[in-house]
Specification:
This protein is of the alpha+beta class and 358 residues long. The protein has 2 domains: 149 residues, Gcn5-related N-acetyltransferase (GNAT) (Aminopeptidase), CATH 3.40.630; 144 residues, Gcn5-related N-acetyltransferase (GNAT) (Aminopeptidase), CATH 3.40.630.30. Helix content is 43%, strand content 28%. It is built from 14 helices and 13 strands. Strands 1, 2, 3, 4, 5, 6, 7, 8, 9, 10, 11, 12 and 13 form a 13-stranded mixed sheet that branches. Strand 3 and strand 4 form a beta hairpin. Helix 2 packs antiparallel against helix 10 and helix 3 crosses helix 4. The protein is elongated and about 70 Å long.
């Protein structure tokens, strides 16, 4: 039965709502990318559409919130490959279900959510709804995000890694140290912001720069990470990791740490040092540090990769969810997604002809 005390509405992102949103995020133990600040920065960097925010309130108090975009019958998530995970915040399953029902009803064409953790409350609401009503939902896995649970000590964890891999790391470290002293450091918060240019230069010097996927490769992407850095620094979450030989940075990590969890957003290394494996050497140092300071989890984020597989112990299934409208436009959109646009256009033409003939 629906909870009649819950009122779902669309609201503008005011400072008051942002404060309520962040309070809900904090009480829920949410990751940094589920706070209002991250969403505001993301939308300003990557979207030309205004935010469409659904809220659920009980006796005037915010109990659930969803950040979305809405255009021409399509309701979509505020997410792309720079979003580690997308979700909605809710105090209770009933409040989350109320948001889901409103979002589905508002999506004339389709509701499309990307980078939803299959095991999250939002993922379960969507999948359970599809079990009750099989029509109109398509799910697919778009990433398998690796992570390491840090419940055991560093020594016990390291013993589980491939012996040949660790031996190769030691060999490369010796060769690198023979050319000059290696130094590892982690810059934090406001002090870290001054090191962004150095880090971005390192990240762009390798294959990411060649493929135009580095932070510095596009103005919107660089603006996004600079703004995230400033916002995260203000909250005490920003961490920049460096591996240096002498005064030269040869590997770089752009990270956040919040709620006992380490999030690796971006990483890169100097291509001139590729033969020495600086990317894996800084990974060893960052993981060791995470164990030593007592964090609970180390999140690699993104999709699986061979270099991550050397370290990761688990992974999270991130889904793309598409729920189509229960109307001719929604049916046509579903046909276009599953069988091609030509068949969809022909079907819509038949539907319209049938309406004219009746």
């Amino acid at each position: 039965m629906p909870d009649e005390s819950i009122v779902v509405a669309s609201e503008s992102l005011t400072e008051r709502l942002a404060a309520e949103w962040d309070e809900l995020a904090e009480s829920s133990g949410a990751a940094p990318f589920h706070y209002s600040g991250w969403i505001r920065i993301w939308n300003g960097s990557f979207s030309s559409q205004p935010l469409w925010i659904l809220t659920a309130r009980s006796e005037g108090r915010l109990v659930a919130i969803a950040a979305l975009r809405r255009r021409r019958g399509l309701v979509s998530s505020t997410s792309n490959w720079h979003t580690p995970e997308y979700t909605w915040l809710a105090e209770t399953p009933v409040a989350l279900q109320a948001l889901w029902a409103e979002a589905v009803a508002s999506a004339v064409r389709r509701l499309e959510l990307r980078f939803v953790d299959e095991a999250s409350a939002l993922g379960q609401v969507a999948l359970n709804a599809s079990e009750r009503n099989q029509r109109g939902l398509i799910t697919r896995t778009i990433a398998r995000a690796p992570y390491v649970e840090l419940h055991e000590g560093w020594d016990a964890y390291e013993q589980r890694l491939r012996k040949k891999f660790l031996s190769e790391l030691r060999r490369r470290r010796r060769k690198l140290e023979a050319q000059g002293e290696l130094m590892f450091s982690v810059e934090e918060n406001a002090a870290a912001v001054g090191f962004l240019d150095e880090g971005f230069e390192v990240e762009a010097s390798g294959w990411k720069g060649d493929r135009k996927s580095a932070i510095a490769s596009s103005e919107p992407t660089q603006r996004f990470y600079r703004d995230v850095a400033g916002w995260a620094a203000d909250r005490g979450w920003l961490r920049l990791g460096f591996l240096r030989q002498g005064n030269r940075a040869i590997a770089f990590d752009f990270c956040l740490e919040a709620g006992g969890i380490h999030y690796l957003l971006k990483t890169g290394f100097d291509r001139d040092y590729h033969a020495f494996g600086p990317g894996q050497l800084i990974r060893q140092e960052m993981l060791r540090r995470s164990f030593q300071i007592g964090l609970a989890s180390y999140e690699f984020l993104g999709d699986q990769a061979a270099w991550k597989a050397e370290w990761a112990t688990e992974h999270r299934m991130l889904l793309a969810l598409q729920r189509f409208g229960n109307n001719p436009i929604g049916w046509t959109d579903q046909l276009a997604q599953t069988h091609g646009r030509k068949l969809a256009k022909e079907t819509l033409a038949l539907v319209r002809k049938g309406r004219r003939d009746t």
